[in-house]
Amino acid sequence: MPFWPIMLSILLFFWDLFKIWGYTFFVSFTHGGTIWIIIPIWLSWFFAEFFQEKKGTSFGNAISNGVVPLWVGIDWMRQLTTILIETQAKLSMLVFSKYIISVLVISYGIIIIVGGIRGSEFVRYFGRIREVSYILAVFTPFVYEIIAPGYKYFLAIVIFFPLFYFLIELIDRLTPEPVILSKDKGTEEDIFKDLGSFNQQINQPTGRSSRFPPLR
């Protein structure tokens, strides 16, 4: 088989995956059942990404980030259970897979929270708001049954995650640092400086005050 037709087939396949991937982000804004959950997800991502985690995440931020998938995963399970009860449908393999994804997302949130409390270094890499937001954004339309699942859908999620990650990283590097980050950094330095001066004053020997005569 000639080389160029093969390359064209591969490019068309990846283009098809890319369209599915882009549609996954867009479709949640067109459905009344998901718009109220997808908007908070993206708003929390935007403000945390560019005003808190521009240079990485802290343990405190990671703990807050872990709460988001924990809560969303619980809401997914509530939604699935409500549909099963209202429709009196049997637990199919598709619905069971959605429960599995919900449990995994809840577990992910708990792991991030516990890791942040313990000060585990892995949360600096796996507990960033961009990873949390990506997972919730791509699986929300699947759980709410507004996108047809298939191998291309899951393949697109995996393949284009690095594109999402490094695109956000590029934006972080190209955009200027917000003023509030500099102010927060300066405030922290002043606090530690004042604490250091206070400790030095406490640890210095005071001696006897000349205002009071020695006891006889």
SSE ordering: HHHHHHHHH
Radius of gyration: 26 Å
Output the structural class.
Answer: mainly alpha
Q: Kindly state the percentage of residues in helix.
A: over 70%
- Biggest sheet overview: none
* Poorly predicted runs: 188-192, 208-212
Percent of residues in beta strands: under 5%
Q: What gross morphology would you assign?
A: globular
Mean pLDDT: 83
The tally of strands reads 0
Distance between the termini: 110 Å
Structure annotation, total helices: 9
Describe the SSE topology.
Elements: H1 3-27, H2 32-51, H3 59-87, H4 93-118, H5 123-126, H6 129-143, H7 151-159, H8 161-174, H9 179-203
Helix pairs in contact: 1-6, 1-7, 2-6, 3-4, 3-6, 4-6
Give a quick rundown of the structure.
The chain has 216 residues and is mainly α. Helix content is 77%, strand content 0%.
List keywords for this structure.
single chain, 216 residues, mainly alpha, 9 helices, 77% helix, 0% strand, globular
Structural write-up:
This protein is mainly α and 216 residues long. It has a domain at 25-45 and 61-180. 77% of the residues lie in helices and 0% in strands. It has helices spanning 3-27, 32-51, 59-87, 93-118, 123-126, 129-143, 151-159, 161-174, 179-203. α1 crosses α6. The termini are far apart.
